[in-house]
Design goal:
about 240 residues; seven-stranded antiparallel sheet; 3 helices; about 20% helix
């Protein structure tokens, strides 16, 4: 399973698959100030913060805009290697923080949008799962990434840190120790106010998985960088052999 260089730029590619699900953020209205307080844990505006807060570069136009941009960053089917052209999880994005935040616990703080997509081989022996979280600003993303690094560093009974070429502004690579995930390797990439996670599962073994992860994560990092430069993400792994 030898990885070759990917190509970028050029023609804007359309999203091949996916369903965009946008949950509009609720914001306050003008007029007189409402003295009623929201109850803690209310399902109104909590967890649906509009972006562009102070403290670093922000998503600017809010969580809905961040969800739309996340849809363009997550790789569509036609940008995947030929072997990974079977959809395992349809592309979707949401204008709110992820619903599951246990690993690591701090990854949802300051999040305004998220999305996922997954692909696999025909025989299901290999799969690539992409997760993307957009934060209200760069500082919030930096804090969330610090939570990831702490998780990898202090949970040696669950995961093992691995070497890998750095991607984005900062990144970390690790593998799981549990038998259920022994064939999965993960890279977490922070680029400005985004954090992208790529899980690569390969039943051929960890070494093969790491080689493919290196090639696919490089493409993912470029798509993140293109978005933060206000370019349409066009980096493709279509020419990567896995």
């Amino acid at each position: 399973m030898t990885a070759v260089r990917f190509t970028t730029g050029g023609t804007t590619r359309a999203i091949g698959v996916g369903v965009l699900v946008l949950s509009l953020a609720l914001t306050g209205c003008g007029g007189k100030k409402n003295k009623k307080k929201h109850k803690r844990g209310s399902a109104t505006s909590h967890g649906r913060t509009v972006g562009g807060a102070t403290g670093g570069k922000g998503t600017g136009t809010g969580s809905v805009s961040a969800a739309r941009r996340a849809q363009t960053i997550l790789p569509p089917l036609d940008t995947m290697p030929a072997a990974l052209r079977h959809v395992g999880m349809e592309l979707h994005t949401r204008a709110k923080a992820p619903s599951l935040c246990k690993d690591p616990g701090g990854k949802c703080k300051g999040a305004v949008a998220n999305g996922q997509v997954g692909y696999r081989t025909a025989d299901k022996a290999e799969g690539a799962s992409y997760d993307l979280i957009a934060y209200r600003n760069t500082r919030a993303a930096e804090r969330a990434f610090a939570a990831w690094e702490s998780y990898v560093r202090h949970n040696k009974h669950e995961v093992a840190a691995l070497d890998g070429a750095p991607q984005g502004d900062e990144s970390t690579v690790y593998a799981y120790k549990s038998p259920a995930k022994e064939n999965t390797v993960t890279m977490v990439i922070r680029q400005d106010e985004y954090i992208g996670t790529l899980d690569l599962r390969d039943t051929s073994g960890r070494a093969a998985g790491q080689r493919d992860l290196a090639a696919l994560s490089e493409v993912y990092a470029e798509r993140l960088a293109q978005a933060t430069r206000d370019e349409t993400p066009s980096a493709t792994a279509a020419h990567v052999k896995v």
